[in-house]
Structure formats: C-alpha cells, structure tokens
Design a protein that fits this description.
This is Pirin family protein. InterPro entries: Pirin, Pirin_N_dom, Quercetinase_C, RmlC-like_jellyroll, RmlC_Cupin_sf. Pfam families: Pirin, Pirin_C_2. Belongs to the pirin family. The structure is a single chain. By secondary structure, the chain is mostly beta strands. The chain is built from no helices and 19 strands. The strands form 3 sheets. Strands 1, 13, 14, 15, 16, 17, 18 and 19 form an 8-stranded antiparallel beta sheet that branches. It has a 7-stranded antiparallel beta sheet with strand order 2-3-4-11-6-9-12, with no helix packed on it. Strands 5-10-7-8 form a 4-stranded antiparallel beta sheet, with no helix packed on it. β13 and β14 form a beta hairpin. The model has no long low-confidence stretch (mean pLDDT 95).
C-alpha cells in the first residue's frame, strides 16, 4: 500500500480571477501540463471552483467523461444541451455523463459566493447517450456509484474522535472538504487530498468536525 498526499496549497491555480473564477486543480489541466500527474485510477480532475456572484462558465462541450459535482457552499445553476436545468446546493450529488457529447453551462446566479468540487472520471467505454442525475441532500447519499467508470463516491461526515472505514480498493482518492482528518499517518485539512494505492484495512479519524469524500475505484 502506498499513500501520496497533496496539500491544498500545492494545487495548480487557474480560472479567470478578473471574471470572478478562482480554480485550484489537483491534476494536470489546461495550460498546466504535468505528464506525471495525469490521472489516478479513473480520476482525471478534481477542481475546486470558487465563483463570485454572477460569475460562471459559458456553454462548453464535454465528451467521454463522467462529471460529478459536490457543492461546498452556495448554489450552482446547471443547464445542458439535453434540456436539464437545475440548482445544486450543499450536500447534493450531481452527475453528468457526457458520453458521446453534451454541452452545459455552470453559473453562480445567487447573491453569495459559490464553492464546489468538480471531479472528472474516464469511462471504461467511450460513446453512448448523455445522462443526468441529481441526488438531493435530503436523500442522504452514503455512496454514489458511477458504474461507467468503475467508481463509487462515499460521503462521510464525522464528529471529533469518530472513525470511518476506508474502502479496500486498488485506488482510493480521499479529499477533505472541511475539518481535519488523520489518514494513513497523515494529518489532512481542508483541501488536502490523499491518493492511496492498494488500500486495505485503513480507517480515517476525525480530529475536528469533518466532511470527507472518498472515491473507491476499481479497474
């Protein structure tokens, strides 16, 4: 088993600050090309997006990508070429399967700043028909499966001193949304992530109230 920790401050900073868009990239992305950091398991992007009120991404295309979005604070407006128009809030899980091709718009139409995580995964097979799923926070997702990419997103909310099992899997990507977590001998804070290869018998311990996202991925 190996663990690689990436601190929040080590992420590549992108976006367009003049347009109210501040982005922190965990993987090689856009003009920041890093051949040694292209993917981990099926995961090819974990972008922390901060949008000022009124800011957003105009219509743009995606293909052959499973896009999962987790809102930290604020409200995200989503519109796509398949006719979906939704508002995504904290605790909701949004999944856009781009398949053979889809276009979408993402904006902060609210009065408050918006922060969200957007995670991209590569599907096992390209093509297909685009699809859209929104699981509301009221449904309390414990695990959200993305079968096309062989992945499951686990959401864990922990009180101080609480422990949670880390899935045994070839690849586990752990991202701390808020709080503090001790995992595989490392102390992780907000925005920190751990990439675990060959996870087996691990637990995460919250040392402060914490929200933790765990991607369980198989070949």
């Amino acid at each position: 088993m190996t663990t690689d920790v990436q601190r929040a401050g080590e992420r590549y900073r992108g976006g367009d600050p003049e347009a109210g868009i501040d982005t922190r990239h965990a993987f090689s992305f856009g003009p920041h090309y890093d051949p040694g950091n292209l993917r981990f398991g099926a995961l090819i992007a974990c972008n922390e997006e901060r949008l000022a009120p009124g800011a957003g991404f105009d219509e743009h295309p995606h293909r052959h990508t499973e896009i999962v979005t987790w809102v930290v604070e604020g409200e995200l407006t989503h519109r796509d070429s398949a006719g979906h128009e939704t508002r995504v809030g904290p605790g909701d899980v949004q999944h856009l399967s781009a398949a053979a091709g889809v276009r979408h718009v993402e904006r902060n139409d609210g009065p408050a700043p918006l922060t969200f995580l957007q995670m991209w995964l590569t599907p096992r097979q390209p093509g297909g028909t685009p699809s859209y799923t929104l699981v509301s926070a009221a449904e309390g997702p414990v695990g959200y499966a993305v079968p096309a990419a062989g992945a499951v997103l686990h959401v864990r909310r922990l009180g101080p001193g609480e422990r949670t099992a880390v899935p045994d899997a070839p690849w586990v990507y752990a991202h701390v949304v808020r709080g503090a977590v001790r995992l595989a001998g490392a102390e992780l804070g907000p925005g920190d992530a751990a990439r675990i290869t060959g996870a087996e018998g691990l637990e995460a311990l919250a040392t402060a109230p914490a929200e933790l996202l765990l991607w369980e991925m198989t070949p």
